[in-house]
Amino acid sequence: MGPQQRTALLSVVAAAVLVALKLGTGLATGSLGLIAEALHSGTDLVAALLTFFAVRVALRPADLDHPYGHGKAEHLAALGEAAFLVLVSGLIAAQSVARLISGETGDVEATWYALLVIVIVIGIDISRATVSWRAARRYHSAALASNALHFASDLLGSVAVLIGLVLVRAGEPAADAVAALFVAVLVVTAAVRLMRQNINVLMDRSPAGAQEQARAAIEQAEPSVEVRRLRVREAGGRHFIDVVVGVRPDAAMGQAHAVADSIEGAVRRALPESDVVVHTEPQEGAADLRERASGAALTVRGVREVHNVAVSSVGGRRELSLHLKLPPELTLDAAHAVATAVEDAIKAVVPEIADVHTHIEPLARGEADVQDAARGDTRGVEATIREVVAGRTGRPPRDVRLRRDERGLVALVTVVLPSHAGLGDAHAVATEIEHELRRRAPAVVDAVIHTEPA
User: Fold this and answer.
1) Distance between the two ends of the chain, CA-based, in angstroms?
2) What pTM did the predictor assign?
3) Burial of 89 (0-12, 13-18, 19+ CB in 10 A)
4) Helix intervals (H) in 30-71
5) What is the tens place of the pLDDT at every residue in 79-124?
6) By three-state DSSP, how is residue 108 classified?
7) Separation CA 202–CA 178 (nearest Å)
8) Is 196 in contact with 225 (CB distance < 8 Å)?
């Protein structure tokens, strides 16, 4: 027999002795308070028996039908015990009120042995409440804790009965009924509190403070992980904890397993004897969110460039900010409409983002040419080439061809110079045109200037 079972069995013996003492003395003296206390101890006897058998069930190891163990048997026993306490206390309270209303307090004899019995009972109540409370704390047993609570309420009830009998000896016969009513109210209050506690456990309510302790332990052991889900419940004095965490997407299986082991150890140190299950998932980095957001923004008509994309966390919510470059000829209304369309597109593609902040910038002339070329629109680049050549030679180019290779956009330009121009002068003009084109048309990565005589 284990220590928990021995404690429960001791409670059974103590409750049986108290029932015999209180009931025998109450019937002999006619004290309703003592009879109420005998009934109270009778409920404790039933409770102790339930606890004894519940602890035996709760200590069984987990099996196929009960993979989480049998710990909730204690809470079921405590709930049944509390319901029985309420029923009996209601009967005692009704009898006490009837005596007080009718004025028939009965022939109560507050004899010396009745007082002696109460004093002995108080001593027993103190010892068994202390023993049960220490065992409950040591073994984290809900059933033993409920026993300790009942024994403490017995102690208060016994003190009330003692005071009632002393007052009866002093000439106040109604004091016995008042003491019995006090005991009934005391028991109902304790029973309701006990029912609420055990219903919370049976409904898998998260224990107060346990979830915070587990989260703090995880964040201290592995500050780089993302806690995505944390569930804590309690049964039979043990915590059952399910954790889902996000780890680096490039982490190997062995590294993820090491993180899970570290979290399990940290949680068990914070909540001893816990059953901890850790599931790891790849973390979605900020870089991935930025790439998806940039791709969504570039699908909106009118957006020429996206830069300075940043992801931040505000109050547990992810927010994104970015800069948009739009054609300079747009009106403010049109630019605002484009920015709104970008925000909607990002939220649709990246639902993890709670809010999007956009900054609008006009695209410079050279940048516009680059973007036009990147999109296959080379009209602006060709117009710039013709303008540069005409400004330098006084006549338009004979031929302008634009080609693309792995480097980007290449301009093949044929210019006409006077036939009497020297070779050195022709080379200088071609170099000046090339430099001017690079300055005014940055989309052109290379310019091949071919000179011909007029």
Assistant:
1) 116
2) 0.42
3) buried
4) 32-58
5) 777 777 788 778 778 877 877 777 665 566 667 777 888 788 788 7
6) coil
7) 36
8) no
